[in-house]
Amino acid sequence: MRTLLPQDNDVSELPPVLPAFLLQRRTSAITIRPRAELDPSAEDLSSRRCSNDSSSTSGVGQNKSSKNVDLRFSFPTMLGGRFSLGLGGGLYLGGTGEAKARSLWRFFCRRHRVVKDADRKRILIGMSNTGGGHKASAEAIQAAFQERYGNKYEIFIVDLWKEHTPAPFNSMPDTYSFLVKNAFLWRFTYEVTNPKLIHVPYLSAVGSFVSRGVHEALDKYHPDLVVSVHPLMQHIPIRVMTERVKSGAMPPTNFATVVTDFTTCHNTWFCPGATRCFVPTEYCRQLALGNGMAPQQIILHGLPIRPSFSRPLSSRPVLRRSLGMDTGLPAVLLVGGGEGMGALEETVSQLDARVGDKCQVVVICGRNRSLQERLRARPQGPGHVLLHVCGFVDNIHEWMGACDTIITKAGPGTIAEALISGIPILLNGNVPCQEEGNIPYVIDNRVGAFETRPDRIASIIASWLIEGGEEQRAEFTAMGRRAKALGRPKAVYRIVDDLAALADEPCFDFGPAAAALLGQRNGAAATAVAAAV
Predict the structure, then answer these.
(1) Rounded to whole angstroms, how far apart are CA atoms 361 and 117?
(2) 380 CB-side CA count, 13 A
């Protein structure tokens, strides 16, 4: 067996599709790279061939005059020709002369790629649709980039788990929905995987099954920055990126985490291998520090909320007229999330019985059409609460601006939006574990209350808006002012500005690039020590 080096036309025939981290070892004597990464200049190829000719004996050849060598193994056949196999995913068929390259890698992976515009930086936002908050935060970041920088950056929002991992890992969003509906199972899963001693080796094991899909996503999008808005999008992508940077498969690239939980966060959010971690509250910042992240990695800006919440609104009477509301009645906004979940119908019934026609209620039902139909069929007119029933809306900022208070579950995004809008918050439920800390956050900051029983919810609303005395109404007004003070309407712009800087200039203090460079330095030092010995 002998080793051959590619001819000029071979370099252009085969794409560099074999993951480079399987091929390249920068700290060893021989570096094997995908063929299209070789310098096609005549002088370089000539020097490689000369070097190869001097060392082409049985076994693997070594180029001592050049840092990188592409290897091809050639076997004689009974028909007088040669069967050649190159490291890089190709099969070479030909006679004793020049071999022709034919790629076999297409049988093992998807080859479609997004054509990259050389003048625009690319940002890949990894998310998973486990609840609506992660996708909403990703879309808020995308919208802020568009508003701030126009078409300077290409933003791709990708569900890495669903689109780029094999079964059963690609069913994670469905699994999450099932677990959340069964509180005991979700709490067990959350608590068991929360300790670092558990989730780090667990994700490392999972990575051995799904890392190939992450490689494919990075090959497809060629990002200049990778951003995570999901707790399970840190450890595995960071490890894959570190391997790729170390091997030369991708240039030094930053990785940023944008935490979209408000207070209580699963510890998988915080990976010391990230370049930067953007947190919404001081509570989250302390969690990041406790998980081994350096203070310089952590940036506190707030939660990324859609840019429409940062723009000034018309006065409340004007908004109410434009939305078809009564300008004289107190207004309550009742939100059930994207699926219209929660005891919305019972809450409406209790409000109707308690406050009657002295109040109006806006109900956001999301995609729950049957709930919309039942609410619209309720009795209307004197003695009954004035109902405004909506499905899925894209102007929630206007509805919040038109209402006096909001009833919602303890989701981080809705709480942050209500704070920006300056309206008191009445929490009526929460997802176990990650939303539990949002309840004391609202109560301790004196911007709202928590109650799950619909009859008690109706009593609180009545005391806030109708039946309470002067002192209680003054406290209600003060809650709105405190909420406004806690809101961070410019957080998404500050996050986007920092992400743009990370996309433009790789950081070498933290992140995949730093880890790769450290590994190279350690490898070079070990080689030097071995040579000295």
Answers:
(1) 49
(2) 10
Percentage of the chain exceeding pLDDT 70: 73
- Are 171 and 163 contacting, i.e. CB atoms less than 8 angstroms apart? no
The reported pLDDT for the residue numbered 366 is 83
pLDDT at residue 178, rounded to an integer? 84
Residue linked to tokens 């004289």: 328
Q: Taking every pair of C-alpha atoms in the chain, what is the biggest distance, in angstroms?
A: 102
Task: Please tell me whether residue 149 adopts helix, strand or coil conformation.
Answer: helix
335: burial class by Cβ within 10 Å (0-12, 13-18, 19+)? buried
Q: What is the pTM of this model?
A: 0.75
Average pLDDT for the chain: 80
Among residues 292, 239, 238, which one has the least CA distance to residue 270?
292
The tokens for 238 are 């960071």
3-class DSSP state for residue 329?
A: coil
Q: Average pLDDT of 247-256? A: 93
Strand partners, 3: 73
Q: How far is CA 530 from CA 62, 68, 471, 477, 523, in A?
A: 19, 21, 79, 73, 11
Angle, CA 95 vertex, CA 89 and CA 99 arms, to 5°: 35
- Please give the Cα distance from 447 to 411 (Å, whole number): 15
Do you find a cis peptide bond into 272, omega within 30 degrees of 0? Answer: no
Q: Span 373-386, mean pLDDT? A: 93
| 500 token code pair | 């743009």
**Which residue has 């206007």 as its token pair?**
398
Please, how many CA atoms are within 13 Å of residue 423, restricted to the half-sphere of its CB? 28
Rounded CA separation 381/134 (Å): 40
Residues sharing a CB contact under 8 Å with residue 421, sequence separation 6 or more, in sequence order: 309, 397, 400, 401, 483, 484, 487
Q: Are 127 and 135 in contact (CB under 8 A)?
A: yes
Identify the CA nearest to 290 among candidates 270, 276, 315: 270
- CA 488: distance to chain centroid? 21
Query: Can you name the residues that pair with 57 across neighbouring β-strands?
Result: none
> How many Å apart are CA 240 and CA 19, to the nearest integer?
11
Q: What is the DSSP string of 464-533?
A: IIII--HHHHHHHHHHHHHHHHH--TTHHHHHHHHHHHHHHS--SSSSHHHHHHHHHHHHHHHHHHHHH-
